[in-house]
């Protein structure tokens, strides 16, 4: 027990890194995903195709490769080449990757809204933008909560991939202690940390679902 | 722009004028030249078998569908016109929105916004489209709810209402935008027989207040008693268009007669 | 902060305070690892700090994924590799090394109960190593042994390899002596080191191939520390004796 | 180009490992997930709770930890303790983990079938088992194809986690060459491999969706 | 097991006998003691306002809901009985299935199996439940489809059918299990008025063939012309139960009268 207390500080620090990556990724990838979803449903075929290709690329290759690419290879790419420090590089990779997943969720959500809602709004004089903002998206949120919740819970565990850029997230911190002290109990503590975070997220989403349950469809 | 088709317009500008509308979905021609003129305060009932193009006609009038030929004018303003060369031209988007703003529409399946309460359904468009302030529109919305007999449902969500109540909210929502013409597409056919009555009663009251209405309906009793004219459509054409009592008493066309026999 | 590129100042002219970024694997006790307070500590860390002090340089330590060390160095994300870096001919093609400062052996570790007594008995056995470590190269260099062993399993770190040795799935592991002895000391009586090993090698400090100015300064400071006994003091602190290679 | 041809053999070998883990995991975790979903909907409250706890644990902790646990800690657990070789250990971890995800997908799919279908079957005399097998599950398959497709595409990339048990999947093979040759082109080749696998999977699922599109709901 | 309630049974065993059914959902008592006896070949129409418990009554008869008190017998076999102490007991599960096998049910929303073709919908239960071979049931299924006028829809999926066609498939599907009694819960109220006719025609044919039927319906014309007896339910009770013509001509109870006036 003393030992557990002893290893808590680095694990808590690692949790801090995990949560930072998690929160920043979420805050940036959700709006980006929404924008991508709207572009994916655009009337302009080349835009649709480009976004489709982007999503395919991002979902088709491992996030770890994307992260290594942005960190190591991007500096040598002409024009867009930029040398990012490790944390920003990780964030960029996570955001680009998760935005693709969120884009697909949003697209499906938007397409699930019946045509009648668009027509009802149109005959009342609402423009397309107004219809989206006031009528469609508020309903989309309710419908996509379950897949968004899934994706979010996956993200909290995926953050551990930043080990390839040698950042000390929770899981890597635990591995570090395991290697220093040659005992596996830090893993058990880390697992408990993950479970707690998942639990908090699950409750948060349940709360949201309840909030949106005031109306049925 | 104002390219007129051949016929001369009657003296008072009609509320709505549709001339020779043609509409094709892919290979199927659904409207094969439908014309209609509606005067202020008229109630037009459109009847006809399934697939005859009744809904499509209404949807073209309010720009939910675009026609491929023909002309539509609302209160003298041209929405779409076709020149002698057969080229069909709609006016600019902003103008379309203004012109269609004179019309409201009530759908078979209500199309209420499920995430908004009854009151919010009514005030959404006046606030978003007309930019009015909430405190200005709420009293009017409440008055409309009282009018359709749903004052107590103000804060309920649509899912908590019966079909008849939903449809009355839909009517009130359309009225909240103060349209000059109301279009109805089978407003009672998704309702239980018992709930139909309350919606028809509301529509009858609107007719009594001289609201201009075009109603696609299966309710022959309503068409007979409330409509000033009844249009019988079949196969994308107007087969017969006459004052209600006349048409029901002595249908001229054999197709009309066959249809009416089947319905009653 | 870190400088984008190390200043190529003239040697022995530390007037312009430069700063260097040392790349290391922070999971590599006792050379570099994190203590209870999550601070990076270790033998190499202390050496590097002392060198930096003498050169009047700011030093910062950047944990890297060890398997990406060349990319980190050549991408100028770090200036120095300093973490029990074995000097090999292959690496010399890409990395500029100081003279050796530590002698290391690739030791063979088995469980205490294991019947294995000699290197030759590894024939037909399963051997574990850390992926990307110089133990891999050392075994491959010993062609006879490399051919005789049944399977060489490459783990992402030495601890998983040691744990797998404990579960009995491995018969032996090959590991850097400095690291191996550190772990063995943690579990007295559980492991045994064979007398034979997979050769001796040297640890050096690495810089970019073209960074001769920095290398000159590093080499000078290291030589001074070996001469005046500072290096020996640091060694005693971490290993209990002076094992610095003169 | 020559270089690419040169590094192909180890990458193809790695792809073989990746595909093995992928196929075996899929074949075992889908039926196990279905069984868990049915238990999750059982009438017996303790069964429901136990399965719920299992799913929470499996989805709440990183797969990497689960794999390390099964490989290293399971042998020391009394009664159920068993020492699995690396490949079986990885498979067990993947199957247990993915079964939890599939279970949630199946559960949602089963719950989305309207009560009318159960009642229609009941008044015709079908038993609960018959109703499930003949009426409900065939319809569930159509509805869950999109999330199953997502999960499957995630799995093909997740397989790279087996590196912690010292196995050489595609990604690790690529990283090995990168370290050896000090060039990032193996990453590009590996990315292409992943994209091809994803593409094949995507087409496969599109084909299935078309097959099930013969009927609408 | 065969614990009889107080009344003496009439000489010929009735097809179906329900005595004093009570059903509660939580705090609400939906059936407050409903009894009904149906003879072979009788057609019973159940009418009444929304929420009066008509559907619940049908659902209790075919064990889609369980009663809390009362007795149900089908062709003399007891499904559920209540002893004098008020304890309500259902027979064993296997027996329930046999007894309910004598009944078929047609729902308002058809509840066809969307993943099966029309023919497959018909043969699914005979094959799965009765274990018959495909080649034995297909000819009979085809005959039933011809009977309801849908021989050409044999290989279509339900989603391709109109509402009226769906409902006729649902009737054929129920008939494929050769039930002795058919229960209908508002079989036409989800249909367009135009499509209602074809379903009512099919039901009329069944009545002509002396199929025993219990039909909850809003179609007064059908109740009047086809039903041998009409049951008027309100508030979970049978208010009036009389031969159709009598009840429509001179409703005894004021509530019946008010309801009929509203409907016609
Ligand atoms: N979006 C569309 N695409 C293709 N065909 C369409 C579309 N909308 C309508 N149709 C076809 O146009 C024809 C007329 O349809 P419409 O809905 O106008 O008929 P209706 O008279 O309103 O019939 P109902 O009484 O059944 O509502 C039908 O054959 C219909 O299938
Ligand atoms: N599963 C249920 N849980 C709770 N209440 C129910 C349930 N099913 C029905 N009820 C209630 O029982 C009452 C009777 O319902 P029922 O559906 O039997 O009426 P009905 O006569 O068929 O009406 P309708 O003509 O609207 O179909 C209603 O108040 C209804 O809300
Ligand atoms: Mg229509
Ligand atoms: Mg009912």
From TrEMBL, chains A, D:
GO CC annotations, alphabetized: ATP-binding cassette (ABC) transporter complex
Keywords of this entry: Amino-acid transport, Cell membrane, Membrane, Transmembrane, Transmembrane helix, Transport
Pfam families associated with the record: BPD_transp_1
Compartments where located: Cell inner membrane; Cell membrane
Listed transmembrane segments: 20-42, 63-81, 87-106, 187-205
Signal peptide boundaries: none
Broad class of where this protein is predominantly found: membrane
Molecular function, one GO term: transmembrane transporter activity
SUPFAM superfamilies, per the entry: MetI-like
Limits of the ABC transmembrane type-1 domain: 15-205
Bilayer topology: Multi-pass membrane protein
Top-level taxon in the UniProt lineage: Bacteria
GO BP term, pick one: amino acid transport
PROSITE patterns registered for this protein in UniProt: ABC_TM1 (PS50928)
Biological role: Part of the ABC transporter complex GltIJKL involved in glutamate and aspartate uptake. Probably responsible for the translocation of the substrate across the membrane.
Subunit structure: The complex is composed of two ATP-binding proteins (GltL), two transmembrane proteins (GltJ and GltK) and a solute-binding protein (GltI).
UniProt-listed PANTHER family: L-CYSTINE TRANSPORT SYSTEM PERMEASE PROTEIN TCYL, MEMBRANE COMPONENT OF AMINO ACID ABC TRANSPORTER
Family to which this protein belongs: Belongs to the binding-protein-dependent transport system permease family. HisMQ subfamily.
Name of protein: Glutamate/aspartate import permease protein GltK
TrEMBL record, chains B, E:
Keyword Coiled coil attached: no
Record's bilayer topology term: Peripheral membrane protein
Pfam families linked: ABC_tran
Ranges of residues in domain ABC transporter: 16-260
GO MF terms, alphabetically ordered: ABC-type amino acid transporter activity; ATP binding; ATP hydrolysis activity
Family according to the record: Belongs to the ABC transporter superfamily.
Descriptive protein name: Amino acid ABC transporter ATP-binding protein, PAAT family
Organism of this sequence: Propionivibrio dicarboxylicus
Source lineage: Bacteria, Pseudomonadati, Pseudomonadota, Betaproteobacteria, Rhodocyclales
């Amino acid at each position: 027990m003393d030992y557990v207390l002893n290893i808590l500080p680095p694990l808590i620090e690692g949790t801090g890194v995990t949560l930072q990556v998690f929160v920043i990724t979420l805050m940036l990838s959700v709006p980006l995903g929404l924008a991508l979803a709207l572009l994916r449903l655009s009337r302009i075929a080349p835009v649709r195709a480009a976004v489709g290709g982007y999503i395919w690329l991002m979902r088709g290759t491992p996030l770890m490769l994307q992260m290594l690419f942005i960190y190591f290879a991007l500096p040598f790419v002409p024009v867009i080449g930029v040398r990012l420090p490790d944390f920003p590089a990780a964030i960029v990779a996570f955001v680009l990757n998760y935005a693709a997943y969120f884009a697909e969720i949003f697209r499906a959500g938007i397409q699930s809204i019946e045509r009648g809602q668009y027509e009802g709004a149109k005959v009342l004089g609402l423009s397309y933008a107004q219809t989206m903002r006031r009528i469609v998206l508020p309903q989309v949120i309710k419908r996509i909560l379950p897949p968004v919740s899934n994706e979010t819970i996956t993200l909290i565990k995926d953050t551990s991939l930043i080990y390839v850029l040698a950042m000390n997230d929770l899981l890597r911190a635990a591995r570090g202690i395991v290697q220093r002290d040659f005992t596996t109990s830090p893993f058990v503590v880390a697992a408990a940390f993950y479970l707690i975070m998942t639990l908090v997220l699950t409750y948060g989403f349940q709360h949201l679902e309840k909030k949106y349950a005031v109306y049925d469809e | 722009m104002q390219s007129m088709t051949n016929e001369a317009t009657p003296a008072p500008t009609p509320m709505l004028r549709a001339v020779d509308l043609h509409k094709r979905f892919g290979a199927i021609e659904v409207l094969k030249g439908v014309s209609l003129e509606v005067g202020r305060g008229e109630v037009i009932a459109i009847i006809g078998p399934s697939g005859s193009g009744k809904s499509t006609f209404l949807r073209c009038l309010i720009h939910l569908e675009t026609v491929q030929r023909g002309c539509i004018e609302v209160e003298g303003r041209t929405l779409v016109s076709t020149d002698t060369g057969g080229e069909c031209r709609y006016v600019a988007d902003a103008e379309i929105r203004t012109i269609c703003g004179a019309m409201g529409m009530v759908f078979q399946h209500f199309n209420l916004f499920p995430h908004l309460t009854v009151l919010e359904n009514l005030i959404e468009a006046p606030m978003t489209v007309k930019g009015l302030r909430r405190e200005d529109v709420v009293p009017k919305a409440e008055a409309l709810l009282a009018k359709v007999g749903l004052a107590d449902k103000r804060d309920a969500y649509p899912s908590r209402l019966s079909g008849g109540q939903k449809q009355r909210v839909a009517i009130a929502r359309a009225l909240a935008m103060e349209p000059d013409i109301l279009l109805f597409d089978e407003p009672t056919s998704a309702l239980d027989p018992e709930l139909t009555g309350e919606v028809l009663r509301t529509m009858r009251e609107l007719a009594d207040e001289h609201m201009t209405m075009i109603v696609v309906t299966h309710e022959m009793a309503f068409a007979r008693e409330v409509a000033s004219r009844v249009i019988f459509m079949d196969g994308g054409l107007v087969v017969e268009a006459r004052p209600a009592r006349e048409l029901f008493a002595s249908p001229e066309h054999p197709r009309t007669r066959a249809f009416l026999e089947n319905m009653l | 902060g870190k400088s984008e590129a190390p200043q190529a100042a003239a040697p022995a002219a530390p007037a312009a305070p430069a700063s260097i970024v040392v790349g290391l694997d922070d999971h590599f006790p006792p050379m570099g690892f994190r203590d209870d307070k999550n601070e990076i500590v270790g033998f190499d860390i202390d050496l590097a700090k002392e060198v930096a002090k003498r050169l009047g340089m700011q030093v910062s330590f950047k944990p890297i994924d060890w398997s990406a060390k060349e990319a980190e160095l050549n991408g100028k994300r770090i200036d120095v590799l300093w973490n029990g870096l074995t000097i090999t001919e292959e690496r010399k093609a890409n990395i500029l090394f100081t003279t050796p400062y530590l002698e290391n052996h690739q030791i063979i570790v088995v469980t205490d109960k294991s019947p294995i007594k000699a290197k030759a008995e590894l024939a037909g056995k399963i051997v574990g190593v850390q992926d990307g470590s110089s133990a891999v190269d050392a075994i491959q260099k010993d062609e006879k042994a490399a051919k005789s062993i049944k399977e060489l399993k490459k783990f992402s770190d030495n601890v998983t390899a040691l744990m797998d040795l404990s579960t009995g799935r491995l018969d032996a592991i090959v590991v850097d002596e400095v690291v191996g002895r550190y772990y063995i000391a943690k579990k007295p009586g559980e492991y045994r080191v064979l007398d034979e090993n997979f050769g001796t090698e040297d640890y050096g400090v690495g810089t970019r191939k073209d960074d001769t100015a920095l290398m000159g300064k590093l080499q000078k400071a290291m030589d001074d520390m070996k001469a005046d006994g500072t290096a020996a003091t640091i060694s005693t602190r971490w290993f209990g004796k002076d094992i610095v290679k003169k």
